[in-house]
Each structure stands twice: as C-alpha cells, then as structure tokens.
Amino acid sequence: MNKNQDIVAPTIALPTVNARIYPRGGLDILSREEVARLRDASRGGMHDLLRRCTLAVLTTGSTSDDPRAAQELYPDFDIEVRQQDRGVRIDLKNAPAIAFVDGEIIRGVAELLAAVVRDLVYTAIELAPEYADELDTSGGITDAVFRLLRNASVLQPADPNLVVCWGGHSIGRDEYQYTKDVGYELGLRGLDICTGCGPGAMKGPMKGATIAHAKQRKRHTRYIGITEPGIIAAESPNPIVNHLVIMPDIEKRLESFVRLGHGIVVFPGGVGTAEEILYLLGILLREENAQLPFPLILTGPVASAPYFEQIDRFIRLTLGEAATRRYEIIVGNPEKVARQMASGIRTVREHRLAQKDSFYFNWSLEVPLEFQQPFQPTHEAMAGLDLHHGRKPHELAADLRRAFSGIVAGNVKEDGMRRIEQFGPFQIHGDTDMMESLDALLRAFVEQRRMKIAGDYKPCYEVIA
Amino acid sequence: MNKNQDIVAPTIALPTVNARIYPRGGLDILSREEVARLRDASRGGMHDLLRRCTLAVLTTGSTSDDPRAAQELYPDFDIEVRQQDRGVRIDLKNAPAIAFVDGEIIRGVAELLAAVVRDLVYTAIELAPEYADELDTSGGITDAVFRLLRNASVLQPADPNLVVCWGGHSIGRDEYQYTKDVGYELGLRGLDICTGCGPGAMKGPMKGATIAHAKQRKRHTRYIGITEPGIIAAESPNPIVNHLVIMPDIEKRLESFVRLGHGIVVFPGGVGTAEEILYLLGILLREENAQLPFPLILTGPVASAPYFEQIDRFIRLTLGEAATRRYEIIVGNPEKVARQMASGIRTVREHRLAQKDSFYFNWSLEVPLEFQQPFQPTHEAMAGLDLHHGRKPHELAADLRRAFSGIVAGNVKEDGMRRIEQFGPFQIHGDTDMMESLDALLRAFVEQRRMKIAGDYKPCYEVIA
Amino acid sequence: MNKNQDIVAPTIALPTVNARIYPRGGLDILSREEVARLRDASRGGMHDLLRRCTLAVLTTGSTSDDPRAAQELYPDFDIEVRQQDRGVRIDLKNAPAIAFVDGEIIRGVAELLAAVVRDLVYTAIELAPEYADELDTSGGITDAVFRLLRNASVLQPADPNLVVCWGGHSIGRDEYQYTKDVGYELGLRGLDICTGCGPGAMKGPMKGATIAHAKQRKRHTRYIGITEPGIIAAESPNPIVNHLVIMPDIEKRLESFVRLGHGIVVFPGGVGTAEEILYLLGILLREENAQLPFPLILTGPVASAPYFEQIDRFIRLTLGEAATRRYEIIVGNPEKVARQMASGIRTVREHRLAQKDSFYFNWSLEVPLEFQQPFQPTHEAMAGLDLHHGRKPHELAADLRRAFSGIVAGNVKEDGMRRIEQFGPFQIHGDTDMMESLDALLRAFVEQRRMKIAGDYKPCYEVIA
Amino acid sequence: MNKNQDIVAPTIALPTVNARIYPRGGLDILSREEVARLRDASRGGMHDLLRRCTLAVLTTGSTSDDPRAAQELYPDFDIEVRQQDRGVRIDLKNAPAIAFVDGEIIRGVAELLAAVVRDLVYTAIELAPEYADELDTSGGITDAVFRLLRNASVLQPADPNLVVCWGGHSIGRDEYQYTKDVGYELGLRGLDICTGCGPGAMKGPMKGATIAHAKQRKRHTRYIGITEPGIIAAESPNPIVNHLVIMPDIEKRLESFVRLGHGIVVFPGGVGTAEEILYLLGILLREENAQLPFPLILTGPVASAPYFEQIDRFIRLTLGEAATRRYEIIVGNPEKVARQMASGIRTVREHRLAQKDSFYFNWSLEVPLEFQQPFQPTHEAMAGLDLHHGRKPHELAADLRRAFSGIVAGNVKEDGMRRIEQFGPFQIHGDTDMMESLDALLRAFVEQRRMKIAGDYKPCYEVIA
C-alpha cells in the first residue's frame, strides 16, 4: 500500500488529506477489462454510494455517531477509482486526516477501503440486473451470497469457531460492558466474532475478544463486520473489524449471518433485535432444519433480564413451548454463555463432519424465498397476515416478524406513519391473545426506551379475529 | 488432501489403486452450482480429455516416454468428479500405483491432478462457445489468457524473476546436461523457471535450478509448466513442476509464455523450436514493441553451435541485420547466460516500474490477432504467403513461421503428407535466395537428426518468384 | 503447553486450581543436568521468591492493586518445578482459578510463568556468588545484563523501534488517559513499548499501542515488561505484557532500560520517577556519551505541566542550562511526542549503522560502576555527598540522585525514618540555593500528592555549606 | 548475510575471492566478551583447524574427492574472525570462487561456514580442558554432546522422523544408486535424513530424499551432516546438507548419531561400517537398553547381499542368535526398507510418549563410558581383549569392535603397520572359531575391495586360546 499525498487546507474546520492509494487483496491482480469496468462503475451510478461508504470507513472510530455529521464535516470529500497498467489506483480528495498518520493512511483503514470498493464493484458488475433471473430463485440468491462472501475472502476451510453477535447499537453502559465481558470469555475459548460492524453490541464483543485473543496469543483472529449500504453510513465500522463485507441488502446480510456463523449470541437491543430473533426462529423451526444443530443464546446483564423474559413469554404464547428448545436464555453469566457456545459449536462441527458438509458455509440450512425477499408493510400486505394459533410455528414466526416489522414502521418510520395517517390503522387478522401479547411487548420496549416514540404509545392497528 | 482407497488387483501387470481425493487449492471453496457444473462437464464431452490428462499426471516421472504406453498400461483407468456438500471429490479407478505411497497419493501429484481438473473445467465453463464473440478479438483472447493464468494462481505481484526456457524434448545427453547447467546458474541468481513442462530442455533447467535454489536456501520456488491438451499426454509433466497450467491450445500457450516470462532462453531443439523463435521475432520486431526490453538468449553447448549459426544466418538473410539486435547467441557458457539474463531482467523491472506496468503480466506487449489464431497449412493458405524481401520484418517473420510450419507438416505430419500426395507440392511465392536459405536450414535439421524423415529429404514445395 | 489439573475446593473464598504445566520457550530443551539444577534451585533458597513472583503473574490483570492481597487470598498456593525425562514440569497447587479457562491455563499467563522460572533460575545458576568477581567490574555487570536479556529472547536484530516509558504506577485518571493516548500515537508509527510492567504509566502506553498496532495490522508486537523481585509482587505485570524479564535488582533493571530502549518517554510520576530522570541525566551528561543520540521526552497532559516545570527548573539550577539539551518537554500533545520520538529513533538508527553498533543493545553507552551499584543512604554516605556548583554536571547529577534517594528514605521509608530518629538529620554538604531548590521540589511533590507523608513535611536534613 | 569483496588474481590457476561475511544464526547476538574470546580462539591454537574445516566447506560440491587437493589448490586461503561492535565478522582471503555467485557467497555455503565457526568455537570455549573433570564421567560426556547439538539448533521438539544412514563413502555405482532409492522412499514417507555428511552412502540418501520431499511438498526438511575435524577435510560436506555439526571426536560423533536418530539404516561400506554395526550392537545388547525400541536395518542391492550375509553369520556365531533380533536385513527392496523404518519409528514415538522421554534426544539409551572413550590399539590393549564364548554379548561386542579396529589398523593404517613391524603380531586371547570367523570376514572384505591392501592379505595377529 503506497501513496502520495499533499496536506491541504481543510475547507471547514477539520483537517483533510489528498492521497493516492494502490490497494491490495483482491484488487491487485485485475485484468485490464476488469479495471475499466471498475472505473466506469465507480464513476457512474455507483459513485454516490461509493463516496458515502468510503467516507464511513475513513471516519471509523471517530467519536460522533451521527452519519450526517461525516457528510457535513467533510463536504468536499471525493473518491475516484483510476486505471493504471499495473492495476487500480484510488484517488481520495479532501479525505479525513484522522485516517492518516504523518500523511500515510492507516493500514487497517486502507484494507476497509479496499473492501468497500471490492464489494460494491462486485455487486454492481456480477450481480447486475442481467442476472436478475438467477436472483429470482432461492438457490440463486444463496449462490449470490456465497460468491460475494467468497470474493471477500471470509470463507476459510478452518475449524468452526465463528460466533455471530446481534444486539442494539445504542445500549446502556452496563449492557455494553456485558457484551465486552461475553466477547472476552468467547475469545478466551478461541472463538472469533462476527457482527453487524457498528457500535454498541456490535463493537463490545469484538473489543472483549481482542483482549482475550491477545492473552491467548491467538495469531489469526477474525473480527468480521457484515453491513449493507443503507446502514454503513449510520453505523460506521468499528476500528476492530478486520474483515469488512458489504452485502447488497438487509436480507442478504441476514442470510450471510446465518450461513457463516456457527452459533449466534443475541444481546439486548431494540425492536430490530426482536425482529432478528423471529427471523431466525422462522428458519430454525422449519421441519427441514429440525435436525440441524444451531446454538442460539439470548443473554444480558441481570438488569436486562426483563427484556428476554418478555420475548420468551411472547414466543411461548405464539409459537409454543417447543420453540423454546431452539434457544437458551442466560442472565448475568458471561462465562456460562461462552462455555455453552463453545460446546454447541463442537456439536456443529461433529454434525458437519458426519454430513460431509462444509465448515465455512451452512449449505444445509433451508432458507425459503420469502425470507430472502424484502417485506413491504403496505395495508394490503398487513391484512394478508394470518396470526392465528394452529398454524405451523415457522409460518407463524414469519408472519409475526412481518407484523412486527409493519407495526414498528407504522409507529416510528416516516413512510409507515404517513400510511397510517392516510389509510387508518392496519387491519390485522389474528387471535386476540396473540395480539395482546404483541402489544405488551411493544409497550415494554417503549418503557425500556428501546423504541423511541414521540408522545404516548398508541397502537397503529386493529385486530380482526 | 485426504483419501480412502483399496488396493486392487492390476488388470495386466502394473499395480493400480482406487482412491478418493478431496482436492485443495481453488477447488476447495466452490458453490454448489459450480460443483454441479464441474461434475457435469467431467462426465460429458470433456471426460475423455480429462481422463487422458490426469493419466499423464499420474504417470509423471515414470521412465517411459511413450504416451500410448500409459494408455495401454492402464487401460482400465478412469476418473469421476463427484459432488459432495463440502465440495469436490475426485474418484480414481485403477490408477497407477506409482503415484501413491503406502496407499496415500503423493502430495505433488495430487496438486497436479487438481490443476488438470481446475484448468479443463475453467476452459469448459468460462471459455465456452457462448463467449465465442469475446474470443474473436485480440484483446478478448489476451483477457482469456490472463484469466486462466490468474485462476491457476501463477500471477503473483512479486519482483520479475521468471525465465522461460524453450528447446527440444528429445535432445542429446550433452545438450541435456547443458540445460541443467544453465538452470543451475539461473537458480543461483534467484531466478525461477517456466517451461513447456515435458522432458529434455523442458526438464533440465528445472532440475538444475532445484539444486541451486536449495543451496541458496530459496524458499518460494516456482517451476511452472505450461502445456496444452494435445501435448500433455505425450509430454507428461516432469516431477519438478510445482505449478501446472493447461492452456486450451498452442497459441494461448505461446502467448502465456511471452506474457508471463521476463526473459526467454532458447536451447537447441527441433523444427518446433525454430518456429517458436520466428513466432517471438514476429512479435518483437513490431514497431509497437520496439521499445520493450525483452531478454532473449539462444544458447547451447559448444557442439551445438552449428544449430544456432544456421538459424542466425537464416534470420540475417530474411529479416535483416536489425533483427539480430533482439537476441544474443551464447555458446558453451552457462554462467554468462545467467548473468546476461539476470541483467536483462533488471532492465525489464526498471521499465515496468517506469511505465507503471504490472510485474506479473506483460500487458504492454502487442500480440496481433494473427499470432493468436491457429494457422492451417492448406494449399490456399500456403499460396497466400508472401516471402519477398522488402516487407516489414515482423510481417515477413510471421509468414516465414507459417511457411516453416506448412513445410514441416508436408514432410512429417500425416495430414500434411496426405495433402501433398493429393494436390502436389505447395506453391510458395517468394524470393529465391530466401527459399534456398529455408531449404538449407531444413536439410541441416535433417542431418542433425532434429527432424525425422523416412528416406531422403525431398522438398514438398515449389517456389514461384 | 499442556496440563492436567483437578478443580479443588478453594481454601477461603476464591476458587483455585491444581495444574501441571509443561513450559515452552527456552525451558523446553534442557539437559538433564540443567533440569536437576533448576529443580534444586526451586526447592532451595529460591523457593519463596519463586512462589511470590509466580503468584503475581497468576493474578495478572486482577483488580486489586495490593500485593499482600494476593498472598492472603491464596495462602495455600504453592509451586514445584519437577524433572521429567522430557524436560521440565511445573506443578501448581491451589493456584488462582482466574488464570485458567475451563481448566486450561491461559496461554499468555503460562508464558509469563515460564519467564519467571527462566529468569530466577538463570540468575540463581548463572549469576551465582561464584561469579562474584565478574560482577565487580562495570564491564562484567553489563555483560551479565546482556546475557540475561538474551536468555529472555528480547534481543532481536531488528530495526530500532523500542520506546521505554517511565512514570508513576498510581497516577490520576487524566494522566492515565494521556499515557494511553501517547501509546496509541507511538503504536500508529510502528513503535514497540517497554515499561516497568506494572499499572498506571506502565500499562497505559501498552494499552494504547495495542489498539494502534491492531489498526496498523502490525503482526510482531513487543510489549516488554522489565521488573525485579522486590517490585513484581506489588506491581503485577499487566496482562498486555508479552515479554516479561525479571532482573536481579533495581540497578540492573535500570541498565536494561537504557541499553535496550532506543528512546525514553517520561510521564508524571512520584519521586521515583524524578530519581530515574537524574539517573539518566547522570549518564547522558558524561563526556563519553556526549555524541550518542538518545531521545528523551518528558510529557504529560496540560494539567500536569507544573510537575515537569519544577523538575526542569531544578535541573537548570543544579546541572546548568546545558543539561536541558538532553531532553524535551512536551505538554498535552501526544501526536507531537510520537513524531519527535520516531524522528529521534531514526537518528539513533543512523548513528548505530555508522558506528557499526548493534541495534539491539546499546553497548556504546558508558554506564559507570557507581550507577550499577546500589546506594545505601547511611549518615556517612549522605555526609559524603558534594552538592556544590562547579562540579561536573554528571557527577553532580549522580550525587543529587543519591541525596534525593536518601531524603525520600528519611521521610517515608521505615528504615530511613528510624535512622533519622536515632542519629538526627543527615548532614549534607551543599550550596544553599541548590538545597533550597531540592526542598521546593519535594514540597511540591507532597502538595501534588506524589509523595505520601504522614503529617506535615519536615526536612530530614541540615545543609552544611 | 552481507559481504564486500574484491576479485583477486588467483595464485595458481583457480580463481579466488576475498570476502567479508557477517554471519547469522547463533553468531549474531553475542556479547562483547564472547566475540573477543571467539576472535582469540580463532587466532590461537584453533586457527589451523578452522582454516582446514572452512576450506572443506567452501569447496563443497566440487568434483575432486582428494582433501589434499583443496589445500594445494588454494594454498593462500586464510580466514580471520574479527570483532565488531555489532557482532562477528569473518574475513576470507583467497577463498575458492566456486563458493560465490557474482561475488556474493552462496547462502547455503555461508550457513555451513557459520556452523564451522560456531562448533569449533563452542568446543574450544565450552569444552576446554578446565572442564576436563566433567568429561571424565559418562553423564558428563553425554551432557557435552547434548549441549553441542543444542547449540547447533538440531534439537527440535518435533515428531520423531530422523533416519541415520551409515555406509561407505566410496561405494560402487549400483550401491550408490540404491542409497538414493532408499532415500527417495524414506523421503516419500516424510522422514528426514542424518548422515556423516560426506560422499557415497552419506550423500545418496539425502539426494533421494530431496526429490521425494519436493514431490511431497515438504517444507521443513532436515539433511543433517555430523562430522568431526579429522574427517571433514577428507569428506567435505555434500551440498545438500542444511544442518552441519562438527563434533570434537569420533566417539562423540557416534553418540550423536545414536541419540539424535530415531532409527538407523546401514548400507554396505568398508570395515568402518562393520565397526559401527558392532558399536551399535554393543550398546543395544546391554540389559539396560533391552526394552528400548531402536529400528536398525541393514540393506543393499541384490548384488551386495554377500556383504550382509557375512556380517550376519559373524554376529550369529559370536554374539548368538539373540543378537539378530536387534536388526533386520533387507535386500534389494528400498520400499520395504522405508515401510519398516517408518513403522519402527512410530513404535519409537509411542515408547517415548509412554515414558515421557523427549523426542529430540534419546536420554534413555545407556551408553557406557568405554564406548565414549577412544580405543588405542596398542599391543597391550589388544592382548587385554577377551574374545571367548560365554561372555555377555554386549561386552563381547565391545571387545570384538576393538579387535576389529586393531586388526584393521595393523593391516592398513600407517601407525598400526609400524607397530606390527616393530613388535610382531598382536597376541589375541580368544576362541578359535570366533577368530576364524573374524578372519573370514576380513578376507571377504579384501576380496570385495572394501578394504584396500597392498599385496596379499596376511593376518597381523596370533590367536591364543
């Protein structure tokens, strides 16, 4: 990684740098044709996306959490991908000086930068509309996810040891400390971490694991951050991430988590975290996946016990007792979390060996098409949900996740709130007890400040039994 | 690389083994889709090709030189590529036991085996007819060559140090020893070797370099063998080759040599070697390539001096004195060959740096379409040649190469000999002195037993001034 | 590193573990004779020392700072070094469970444990009394320091990049954060850290550097902690230390710092830190060392400026303006500290190259015998000091350091206070202004709570002009 | 390894070079004191030894076998070890140019050169007369052997895989080819080779293994050559050796073989080889070693079968049938040799694990003092031998070895022949059948040209029953 640069006067207040970067790692041996396509893509429709994502990476680890801040603080930042006979050159203009040391870009930042270019370009070129037909099938989507992850070099034929950690990005100090403690205990046991790559519960486990890995003298550590273009600007990759992957959308990002990870730990979070739990249960409760071992642990500090109690109660009532066999709730015991996870992953390893399944990608997990496609919470779609007892648990889980998603949109998202104003409350078909339980859950989130509401909470739906 | 196997009774005399191989290195992280395509290709039209090439690799280093021998000695050998959830499995039936140690395949052989599968499949899938339009342009062909070499992992962004060695596969003992001596001196200077991967002048330089590399404690050594399906069976890769590449045809193989190598050493050989020299001069004498440094050394032991004198005389007469600036003839001095080559490659390095050209692929070299496409020596094609003084040297070189190729075919190749019988001698338009010189060259080859003729040599062409 | 162990019931409250450890790294290839001597030494007079030091290492990173705590919390802890044909086995009884994960010792802790055994045994065997004559000369002591460091594998023929950080072990929160910030900036510039291996200013720089090294993807990082038996129990190595060295006494520890380090950063500390500055100036101001580059930076946050101002004033008055050329004071600017240090170390590198001096040990630095031997602050010794203007600065610096050391002892150390009570105040021969300045400095330390005194500060000496 | 050098005019015919070498690997981190001792030793009594040994290394791989040749061809060669602040510098004057490439020393040669300096100096300094008392005991000698080998870095805690190969240095072409074939089969099975480091049976196995290791892609290969000052000049290390050790004398060299190696293959050789077999049986037949697994295979091509048949017959008659359980004779089957050796070494591994004995040094093998001390074949010593049936086999083996050694000396060594001339034949006390068998063995060696005699063979001893 070389570069030339001139220190230039910052436009506003923050110092900036102009630099030329010759990236490595997948971008160093390209054909002339590929370089040309890369350059064209980066100048064309992809340019703004590229600009936003690279700025997020260049401000990694800066204190502010506000995505708009970065755009405003570095209004003149620009990026250009250029062709050279020897490969690719990335020109940065008015880039944040904090990404540089004595005029030289920090090596880890340069790697993240190359990852952004690599993934956006791969998506633009290899998953372009002309492949649209492939992306219509479940298998085609899974294949696309696989190829993107392989291109990002995160598929390695090593022993299973990857723990995915989910949870809120803005959690309390105690909860954050707890995620660090869990990460530390996981790290002591040689486990690597994969998260959504932002702050909060996505950063804590990596930080704890870093210290534990150092103590255990672990050389090859993986702190994988998987994000998507809509989130990366708001949730800039924390500086510990050493493998960054940008998936094209939320659904492919979720599929990456469940296919890459050998187990999942869920920390307290907002409604998004609850949705993710329902997504996962909707998959794991399918008959096809019944025999697949998949360690899933819900955990938090003692003070956060109510969060998981409510979720647990809601799951029991809606999906039935059997659903609870798929997860374990552990409160205030990081060491136990790590011990259980390590033991669960050993089971995964044995299962994969017995099935001659790969270690690095969970091909056997059945993820149906409806989990791979976005859900748009229109009034029609919401009216089409079927929340009654007696349905197959995984189907119910899928509809509950959709209901959840729609209600949240109706309460806090601009788009959803406008619809409610215009067309009135959603009409949801469902059993009353189930809907009351859902309501109770949402109210609890509001109380715990995990869902931010202007004024009092008022349901945005009506139940039609 | 694991495997299970049963020792089975050999069908004829030679012991064979049944084995299952789980290959690594590019074949270990495949998508389900890719594995399926690989399996289908290996069962379909590609199966016989695959069978022949893998048998060549499995008999690597065995004493016999006769390609048919392998087919006859192992008549029941078969190969099947199978799909497993975890990737690819290669099943070998009645495979030569010499490729195994205590029932376990020799690791180097397994690597060559995986290389065969990798390249044949890449060609079958990625360079299939539906890409035919791409392969109509010179740039498209170069791009295909690049991608095949990259897929074979022989493109590395390291300092230039790759010497291509050309020469005959059946040369005399003294000439063979000389190729070893040159390889030794090249190896002492840290240079790696690339050849056509068979015996003779393709093996000697690698053998010499191996000893020198060991003495210099060189860790990362590259003995690259580039072959093509029509040759591999007859010229089984020598056991030193640690990177094997199978290009789809002779022209792409030649282009690989000139784009990968940083310099070329030509040892004595048959008419094929003379053709290769004309191929290379036809490229290097183009105006576009005039400024490109490209070390080219013709060398052999003292006793082989006449071979190069005749070639040199022929080039001077046909292409002019200027053409001789592109090569140096060194006789009986391996150390000088190595010193000159090392110095020439340093110049290549500086030139690439100055031009910001890549170290691993000579993009700047202009190889026109007619050098990338096969030449069919029909009577029409031969009559179309224009061998007169006054033409541009590189065009004349190209036509001379074709004339050469056609005349050789007319003398020794079944297909060509039949045509001559049927339609009479080729009618070649050319200046008399040039054709006489060509004739003298061919006669000398016959005398030196470098071209094998049944009976007396009789020209198969007539000159039309 | 293997081990067997049984979890046993803790004697008091804290859980303990019995374990067997087979150490690596210098202890793995021993002769039978060496193993026997090691075992004997560990059972004989060295046993208590070994027990205390290993307990310190096993409680690494635990929250308590109180050394006695460890001894009281693990009263039944014991260690035995045993002989096995294959080498050394260390048996731990009732060892702190916090050093273990699921019954397996943390690898980093095991390394520190092996380092303790290695160094204590080397000192006991190789620097035993029978070598006493060697240790009477300055060269002999330096040689012993060299051999101990080499045996600890901290002498590496790599480029100069080792920054020694000095400062207090119990500093304020702001000062601690500042040491982290400086460590971070040093780490960003590829510099490694060496400290006294305890908490406070000995931990902060390592912690900051760890994060920076991760960001810069630095693979081979060195966090060297150099301690001695009298300190290690009280200042347990922080968990980041990956190279631990236990020197036999304070003087050899100080010599290790100045011969190993390529530059020194001094953070605010107590009187000990002030003494260390005088030790270093006493060496650097010698004519023999005048031409040796040795970057020395005194730095702290803005709020700590007074500390260095007082020291600076004291040095100017006593040793003269010229002495200040040997150091630079930087306040509140971690980035500048790192830039200056990196630049200073580049000068060191060039100087060593020009002098053909080694990179890993500063042989050229003249450290006279009186700096290598302990100073006992008896009344006679104190009366022998000569604190008058006009002396050579380095001699005056040495005597000032001794005066300082004696006065501190008279004020706060049990032994010294008893002597004062018994024989009255020290009689120090010195110029009045110099002694007043010394007095002012001490009073400032008391005010800033850097020297802890029961009751009011009362000088324990009388000046005799 | 750097160097400066001037090409100088050769004194006689062969080109020479002056060079300065800065060695690595154990000589790079020395104390000033050590460097001074090294320099003094190399100038003092050790200088001639050092000069001879380094010249042997510098002419490694040259065609001539005659040690005197080297001395005569390079009469002005000299070496000086010099002190530099940064470590050691070796100055070579009029050194053979064949050890250099374009003025730069071949890296492997430089390593062997550093090994020579390292071992001679270690012996001169660490095993000097003042340690004589230590070397009076069996344990002390074993300890010295251990420390010398450790200092040479050949003790590695890796899995047992080291095969010692013994046999003649001037053997026939077929026998040489056979040693290569066996080395090849050993290498295919991942085994490393240790020999006496000269030509013939000491080179062949390494050469074969090199090719096999390359085919098996074995990265860390060990070709250990163990020699001693009296032999190295005559048997210059072959160029494949990558670990050279110079033991102080023949007995320590033999002890190194039996303690380092995990199994021994004996090829046909001269009388020296027969002596080595008796040495080994004298050790293995001791009761203390009865339970120790130690694979020992005697092997050669079919044509060499008589050699081992005679030895076998001699052993049966003298030491009894039981002795033959300690070895296996395999004729004309390299693959079987390798399979048996690999299997034997697996047993060694299990035994060491069970006994917790080290992998890298056979501490458990009992080698008594008389095997560690030289035998001087005076008439008194020969008369003291006791070659009667009924003695313990290992004692008889020891005496047979001595008798053998004395008789060979009396027949072919200048010193021994003179004694016989002066004092008449040796008077040996022994049973007639045993002595006749010995006689038959010697006559066979003469016939097979394995012992070179001027004129007819005439016994140099008389039997006294």
Protein model, in words:
- The structure is a homotetramer of 465-residue chains.
- With 465 residues, chain A is an alpha/beta fold.
- Chain A folds into 3 domains: 5-126, MoCo carrier protein-like (MCP/YpsA-like, 2-Layer Sandwich); 159-369, 3-Layer(aba) Sandwich (Rossmann fold), CATH 3.40.50; 375-464, no CATH class.
- Chain A is built from 17 helices and 16 strands.
- The first copy, chain A, has helices at residues 32-43, 47-58, 67-73, 107-126, 138-151, 173-188, 204-215, 229-232, 250-260, 271-284, 305-319, 334-355, 369-372, 379-383, 393-412, 414-423, 432-447, and strands at residues 5-8, 16-21, 78-84, 87-96, 100-101, 104-105, 162-166, 192-195, 223-227, 243-246, 263-266, 296-300, 328-331, 386-387, 426-430, 461-464.
- Chain A has a 7-stranded parallel beta sheet, with helices on both faces.
- In chain A, helix 7 (204-215) links the parallel strand 8 (192-195) and strand 9 (223-227).
- In chain A, helix 1 packs across helix 4 (107-126), helix 5 (138-151) crosses helix 9 and helix 15 packs across helix 16.
- The longest helix of chain A is centred in the C-terminal third of the chain and has 22 residues, at 334-355.
- Chain A is globular.
- Mean pLDDT of chain A is 88; it is low at 1-11.
- The A-B interface holds A 28-29, 31-33, 84-87, 139, 143, 146-147, 150, 155, 157, 352, 355-360, 363-364 and B 28-29, 31-33, 84-87, 139, 143, 146-147, 150, 155, 157, 352, 355-360, 363-364.
- Chains A, B, C, D: InterPro entries: LOG_fam, LOG_family_nucleotidases, PpnN, PpnN-like_sf, PpnN_C, PpnN_N.
- Chains A, B, C, D: GO terms for molecular function: AMP nucleosidase activity; pyrimidine-5'-nucleotide nucleosidase activity.
